[in-house]
Design goal:
With about 575 residues, the chain is an alpha/beta fold. It has two domains: about 210 residues, Rossmann fold, CATH 3.40.50; about 270 residues, no CATH class. Helices cover about 60% and strands about 10% of the residues. Helix 10 packs parallel to helix 15, helix 10 packs across helix 17 and helix 15 runs antiparallel to helix 20. It is rod-shaped and about 125 Å long. About 35% of the residues are buried. The structure holds guanosine-5'-triphosphate (GTP) and magnesium ion (MG).
């Protein structure tokens, strides 16, 4: 799941960069933020799974200048964190280790991943993907042992540069200390953040900083209202911190001395897995909406391909299989039959050929060469290639229409370019496969001739009258010439001798059998063309085109890939069902 969230995040990033002007960039940015948070929270889960007994993590978070660093110093009773009147002063997550040693927290590097741990003094504004850990040896009355994090703000103009570090620190936290000043507590950014954090279920405390004496009850009431509008969990404890004109450092109230230790007892790392699910569940549909929209477009495309293929097959039937003048395959079977019969009357005519070709000529004429020659002169192949070309023209037109529609315009536009780019390849592959089909299908033609031959053996009268016909000999010679590459298949059909033979057989007692065998052959042919060429080649190549859309512009996460991830969500995670 972590990998999938990372992939989704990466695709959203690319898309926002590439197509920021076309997409709803605000909602894309929001989703990226949610994905960064989720990724960090899942990393925490992995970190906890690898080593469950981790020190408590408390993060002090809030908008800029709210007094986060000041509060960290108040809690630590010492000026460890740097404080400044300039907005966006803290730009790295800075951890202070209490009751534990920074060396015991080395494992945190696994959580922070590409973020590098540095000494606090080495943190620089040049590089944001760093964090620091500092040992605190003093005894601190307000804090349980663990790591107290000072974090950068999430609302200043520059905050986008170091947002990921803030989110990493926030997602890591077992306890959240939200610091807001009286000027900032109503800011949308604060409540957006609190809404985003709800599924993480972190015990929270709010520090209301820079208060004027006497104003706290009104502000706390207003805070509560905001909280209840934003979140469905209980309004947390508020610690009012009065503005200190002289010292610039407020005091932590004595009556809240144990507050953070009490909250620490509520932390239950065993619930992490369930909370991860809550988080993913909250956003899943929304994150995947554009992915699903691509799937829907791909389905529409599949529908267009399917009906174009269906149309192509109908054209093939109309213009070849059922066309009285174009259909040549059965004639070929008849030609094969004549050769099989080896009619005595043709012996003389064949002599010439036999002289050149060592007998038996059927063996000599290697199957492949003969078939290749027949394929080269095939009208069927010309027609099949025309049908494929027509199909692609038709689909290109339909794609143009789709580009005009409002839905998924870029997807269709890009698919159109992919089709243009791949058109020649598709046609070439189709053409090569058509030859392969045709050569292979000669096998069926020869089997059909074999069937007819056996049937003729049972019909001595027809056989004899065939043999008695002078024209039969001519036809056999023509058939042989076809084998040797002397004429094309199409010439065969129109050779008067062949026409006579066909008529003779059709009108004989073999007539209905002949008809049946012809229908059989056609149905095998229709099936072979459909499976090997239209579905197996054209259909497949065209259906796969959307996969070739650039991941710079499209999510391009396939439906099976998504299904596998959703399955993971349902199955794993300690038997809890998510979706
Ligand atoms: N006088 C006075 N100043 C305060 C008080 N609390 C905070 N400040 C001042 O407010 C300014 C900002 O405080 P910081 O603690 O640096 O605020 P921050 O939230 O860490 O700000 P960033 O790191 O920039 O996001 C500093 O100049 C502090 O001295 C207070 O109670 N009294
Ligand atoms: Mg600060």
């Amino acid at each position: 799941m972590l990998e999938f969230i990372q992939l989704l995040n990466q695709r959203y990033h690319l898309l926002l960069n590439q197509r920021g002007h076309e997409v709803d960039s605000l909602s894309y940015q929001q989703r990226i933020d949610q994905l960064i948070l989720t990724e960090a929270f899942l990393r925490k889960g992995q970190w906890l799974t690898a080593a469950p007994a981790q020190p408590l993590q408390i993060a002090v978070i809030g908008p800029t200048q709210a007094g986060k660093s000041t509060l960290v110093n108040v809690l630590l009773k010492h000026d460890f964190a740097d404080v400044s009147p300039l907005a966006g002063h803290t730009v790295h997550a800075q951890g202070f280790c209490l009751g534990i040693n920074a060396l015991d927290c080395q494992d945190l590097q696994r959580y922070f991943g590409r973020f590098q741990q540095l000494q606090k003094a080495d943190l620089s504004r040049e590089r944001f993907d760093c964090y620091s850990l500092t040992d605190i040896t003093e005894d601190i009355p307000y804090l349980p042992s663990g790591v107290l994090w000072d974090t950068p703000d999430f609302d200043s103009i520059d905050a986008t540069d170091y947002k990921e570090g803030v989110i990493r620190a926030i997602a890591l936290a077992d306890i959240i200390v939200l610091v807001v000043s009286k000027e900032k507590y109503a800011d949308q950014s604060v409540w957006d953040m609190m809404a985003a954090l709800e599924p993480l279920h972190q015990p929270t405390v709010i520090c209301l900083n820079k208060l004027n004496a006497g104003s706290e009850s009104v502000l706390i009431g207003s805070l509560k209202e905001k909280w209840q509008l934003t979140r469905s969990d209980k309004f947390p404890e508020v610690v009012p911190l009065l503005y200190q004109r002289q010292t610039t450092v407020p005091d932590w109230p004595e009556n809240q001395r144990d507050l953070l230790s009490i909250l620490a007892r509520k932390v239950d790392p065993k619930k992490q897995a369930r909370f991860e699910q809550d988080l993913i569940k909250k956003y899943w549909q929304d994150w995947l909406a554009p992915v699903i929209a691509e799937h829907q477009a791909a389905q529409v495309w599949q529908g267009l391909v399917d009906s174009a293929i269906k149309q192509a097959l109908e054209n093939y039937q109309r213009d070849y299989l059922n066309h009285p003048r174009h259909y040549e395959t059965f004639q070929q079977a008849l030609a094969e039959l004549l050769i099989l019969l080896e009619i005595p009357g043709i012996a003389g005519i064949l002599t010439g050929a036999r002289k050149v070709l060592t007998w038996p000529f059927r063996k000599m004429m290697t199957l492949g060469r003969k078939r290749q020659h027949i394929a080269d002169s095939s009208h069927e192949l010309v027609l099949l290639n025309q049908i494929a070309e027509h199909l692609i023209i038709q689909l290109t037109d339909q794609l143009m229409d789709k580009v005009e529609e409002a839905q998924q315009r870029t997807w269709w536009k890009d698919l159109n370019s992919v089709l243009r780019r791949k058109r020649e390849n598709v046609l070439q592959e189709f053409s090569a496969n058509a030859v392969k089909y045709h050569v292979n299908f000669q096998q069926n033609v020869e089997e059909t001739a074999g069937q007819l031959y056996h049937k003729l053996q049972e019909q001595p009268f027809v056989l004899n009258s065939l043999r008695a016909t002078r024209v039969t000999a001519d036809a056999a010679a023509i058939a042989l010439t076809l084998h040797m590459g002397g004429i094309g298949v199409h010439d065969l059909i129109f050779a008067p001798a062949m026409l006579t033979i066909t008529t003779l057989l059709t009108e004989s007692a073999m007539g209905s059998y002949l008809h049946k065998v012809e229908l059989d052959l056609k149905s095998q042919q229709l099936n072979a063309v459909n499976q090997a060429l239209f579905l197996g080649c054209l259909g497949k190549l065209l259906s796969n085109l959307p996969e070739q859309l650039s991941t710079m512009n499209h999510f391009n996460i396939s439906a099976p890939q998504l299904k596998a991830v959703e399955q993971q969500l349902i199955e794993k995670r300690h038997g809890l069902r998510l979706l």
